[in-house]
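user: can you give me the structure for this one chain? tokens are fine.
assistant: on it. calling the predictor now.
[tool input]
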Amino acid sequence: MTTTVHAQLRTLTRLRSALWAPGAVAVLALLLMPVYESGYEFVVNPDPQGDAEQFERLYTTALLRYTSGFLCGQLIALALGAALGRQAVRAGTTSRPLSIMAAAGLAGAALGLLNLAVVAPAATLRTELTMSIVDVRAAGLDFDPDLLRDSGFWQVVLVGLLSFPLWAVAGAAVGLLLDPDRVVPTLLAWVLAHGVMAVLLVLWDEEFAAFVVLWSPPFGSVASPIGTGTNTPTVTVALLVAGVAYAAVLGWAAVRYPPGRRRGVGG
């Protein structure tokens, strides 16, 4: 198993998508931070009033900063996994689908860690400058300004990081399940349809955040910090459940119905 996973990782490094994926994740993570910072005002409360709402805004914004780029990064992980699966089908090397998906998962995990490593310094600096605005003790709020001691912070970050390999595995499974020529249009259609639905649901009512996560992950990587910041951590739980479900179901299908058993697909 280890040898075949290593071989798949070598194959991955020869794909063009593997060359641009890390750079794209790093650049988008930084460029999108100002967009993420506006998430609270755009989705939850455009005019926060009083200490409690101001604190909620700052806390939610801090969570959004540390997860800046997670949405795009997870979609890139999905695409990278799909590229590996599609390459295996084209090369006729699909006899070990678990190894292909494991390699994709490792690549996805690496992208997630890269994303966090890029945004964490900037997010830490910007959060230190803004969290001091509100005296949380004077506002009667039970909160430790040190995010590293906050369970909600770790819940959002760790689930977000875990989603990277889950979506990479799901992408590899899609690449193994579909005809190589149908992989890209299928994923683009999925992203577009679910993205539009997620935006419409959130604009309609932010209380639909948990449903958005279940229906349109990985768009839940944005809903997760917003939900946690507004004291509804079930959104993050829903994000984890959805990611595991997609990876497990698609992965099972890729193992159960490999290309060699399906007419019209090589391997």
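assistant: here you go. Residues 263-267 have pLDDT under 50 and may be disordered. The CA atoms of residues 87 and 224 lie 33 Å apart.
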